[in-house]
Amino acid sequence: MKAATRVIVTEGLSAPTATIAREAGVSSGSLFTYFDTKAELFNQLYLELKSGMAAAALEGIPAGGKFRDQMFHVWSNWMRWAVASPEKRRALAQLSVSDQMTAATRAGGNKAMKGLAELMERCRAKGALRDAPMAFVASIVNSMAEATMDFMVQDPTNAAKHCKAGFEALWRALN
Amino acid sequence: MKAATRVIVTEGLSAPTATIAREAGVSSGSLFTYFDTKAELFNQLYLELKSGMAAAALEGIPAGGKFRDQMFHVWSNWMRWAVASPEKRRALAQLSVSDQMTAATRAGGNKAMKGLAELMERCRAKGALRDAPMAFVASIVNSMAEATMDFMVQDPTNAAKHCKAGFEALWRALN
Amino acid sequence: MKAATRVIVTEGLSAPTATIAREAGVSSGSLFTYFDTKAELFNQLYLELKSGMAAAALEGIPAGGKFRDQMFHVWSNWMRWAVASPEKRRALAQLSVSDQMTAATRAGGNKAMKGLAELMERCRAKGALRDAPMAFVASIVNSMAEATMDFMVQDPTNAAKHCKAGFEALWRALN
Amino acid sequence: MKAATRVIVTEGLSAPTATIAREAGVSSGSLFTYFDTKAELFNQLYLELKSGMAAAALEGIPAGGKFRDQMFHVWSNWMRWAVASPEKRRALAQLSVSDQMTAATRAGGNKAMKGLAELMERCRAKGALRDAPMAFVASIVNSMAEATMDFMVQDPTNAAKHCKAGFEALWRALN
DNA sequence: CATGAATGAGCGTTCATTCAT
DNA sequence: GATGAATGAACGCTCATTCAT
Question: What's the pTM value of the predicted model, to 2 decimals?
């Protein structure tokens, strides 16, 4: 998985399986002992990365406190993961837009995001978009997160500032 | 171009050039009379689609009137283009994330978006994100547009409603 | 023909016919009005070049005089042609080893060389190789001519010297 | 290598790699496991054939004895190789005039011919062509060898006679 | 279970030749 | 007769996958 992540970042999804195997230090044949096809490897990797991202975001939510503070805690976790794992993030981005991801895999990805989704749902239900479908809100959250990550990575000195600005823009959009 | 757009939507960027040629009703060799390589075809198509999208968005901006109304006019144009040209939109999305797009092509794409970029800049300069980099704002605008388009397409009955809701969320985020 | 000669020198026999046509200032289709196939163009060019070479070699043979002097006159003509027409010589060399030359073309080439062949035959008949087949002698003459040409071209300052040395080596070989 | 040699003789250098692979009894893809490109296969084959030819020529030179006898021994070896390996000879001839041979390959070929070159140099230094460049002599030797080979192959009954006649003509030319 | 050579279908691209204008 | 766009067969090369060892 680690090898595949690295290779996807440098060579894209069209990288030969042999390259991934070499990067992982195994033979090209061994790869197919564990994954029936290249597509299956990618599907599993997608799930692993998405789950890892969700888990990182949900870590250590303050039990009490205001909802907005909880949300900001999650948002910060999420941004921190992105900054700390740029390769995982980029590989995940590539996998997300690939048409090799099966419906089952996408469903699994959503399941892994369940905890986050519930928080978003709470946002939606009591905010300005209370009449919009949940997926609309999720999409907005996702894309504002991506935009914020980009600028934290590009301008690391002001990462904390961008993190906060992104959150506040999102909060305004939703309330 | 039309054939390439259709084929990209159904088969992705890895579709054989022969398929595109057949869809266009020409021989496989003829394609290379007009485009030196597959990558060049994709680069030109990206520019064409991006320019078309930008032109559609900027059509008929009311000269006078409030800035917010002008923005909403552009936003509506943009959403209308997306709903009316789902294939173009999907092909453009795939091309946008492809690493086959050259720097020159991306630069050309940005140039085509210049009119839109200027409007966004006016939003940024006097709004809550006045201290954020322009590209941050552009990314937010883009992604909220994408989210809105998705839900207009998925739920066409309430398209006008989603269009308005998306715009308002964006406006809140920026002000 | 001139265009084909130039193109063969710079790009070899695998040069596209379109390149030859462009060099000749005609359309790619026109080429096939005058030559049914690429191979036919090459066969005709071979004949033209070979005939031109033979004619150049035989020009102005002194009627009387010693046989050796006549031979040297021809040899000098031949070398002069090679030095003056390096492109023709190189194109002819490439055509000569090509398997696209038909038997008829090769026969025609020999016919064009008839005058030279008769001189060689006189050499053979009264020299050391009088028992060897004529073609053996012809091959030796040809290849010593090629060797001499190479060094006249590479070292033009001493061209006359190389010309003479080559002739004398040949004369020794044959007598 | 053997398969490539055979195929080059029958179909020339433009033979499809698939034909060579089939002749070798392997799949078309396997060929590229061992040679990165068709050109590399040809370059390696050239070196192998040239080295083999040189080695055959230099085999068992009589240590003592007259220089002329040593030369004739080498000449005979050389001619014997040509008669025994007509396919190798023809493939080598085609490869030698191909512009796909790299400078490095030609340099390697010359290195393999070093032993022969030294003998030729001794001929040159004390013969009639002592003032001519070495490459001139080498070219003459080569081409008289080729002429002799041709006639040994065409008239095998008198092969030994042609071999001797060729050598003597060469010896006269050089002395 | 690990290995890595072998496989062969598939693709992008070229180019001799044709033919409607 | 000239043109040059169109044609499509052919080729070099790649790579996911298999399987004998």
Answer: 0.90
